Amino acid sequence: MNEPTASAITPAQAWQTLREGNARFVAGQSSHPNQDASRRSSLVHEQNPFAVIFGCSDSRLAAEIIFDLGLGDAFVIRTAGQVIDDAVLGSLEYSVAKLGVPLILVLGHDSCGAVTEAKRTVDTGEMPGGHLRNLVERITPSVLAAQRNGLTEVNDMVVEHTKQTAARLVESSSIISAAVEEGRTAVIGVSYRLAEGAADLVSGYGALTHPAVVRSPAS
């Protein structure tokens, strides 16, 4: 089974392909596409992924498995708590400007340790040491935004952080925002449930099949 290439599909079609792969994974019917020797050989000189998945580094969040993908299907970027930095933005801009990828998916998940640590810092006022402090500082605005909306559970804060991260990608990068504005790329926020294995759409920017969540960062 071969997945469609980036140049051949729209952002909405890319999301539909990911949804179908996740549905197979949830049902225990993964097809493990594009994982044979011929696929490997075909990718030696070029790649044409149809989606970017920017997710948390958590060991339980293996993007290619969750969405039943294979070699060359997804351009994957991972940091703890899907925290944005210059390297992340550069990688995402490369995928859009050079690879023409039509969909950026921001992937958060319940029981996220990084978000839990940020919540603990907000609750206690005790900042962790080392580079963990930088990680917590980048997640804290999402924790505070969730609390302002009356949300106190970590998993609710994870969803808020996923939404905030998707919005920040569009706001922070002129390359990404231009691609979204022109309809070449969409950015979506997706929250993954560990127990069920399901990936739920929580926000989106660009042309998708879920108009209720398609909006601009300013709205």
TrEMBL record:
Cited InterPro entries: Carbonic_anhydrase (IPR001765), Carbonic_anhydrase_CS (IPR015892), Carbonic_anhydrase_sf (IPR036874)
Recite the UniProt cofactor note for this protein: Binds 1 zinc ion per subunit.
What GO molecular functions are on record for this protein?
carbonate dehydratase activity; zinc ion binding
The catalytic activity, as recorded, is: hydrogencarbonate + H(+) = CO2 + H2O
Q: Which GO terms describe its biological process?
A: carbon utilization
Q: In the Enzyme Commission scheme, what number(s) does this protein have?
A: 4.2.1.1
Sites binding Zn(2+) sit at 56, 58, 109, 112
Organism superkingdom: Bacteria
Q: Where is the signal peptide?
A: none
- Any one Pfam family match given in the protein's UniProt record, by short name: Pro_CA
What are the names of the required cofactors? Zn(2+)
Q: Which Gene3D superfamilies match?
A: Carbonic anhydrase
Enzyme class, broadest EC rank: lyase
Q: What does this protein do?
A: Catalyzes the reversible hydration of carbon dioxide to form bicarbonate.
Q: Which family does it belong to?
A: Belongs to the beta-class carbonic anhydrase family.
The entry's protein name is carbonic anhydrase
Q: What organism does the record attribute this protein to?
A: Arthrobacter sunyaminii
Q: What is the lineage of its organism?
A: Bacteria, Bacillati, Actinomycetota, Actinomycetes, Micrococcales
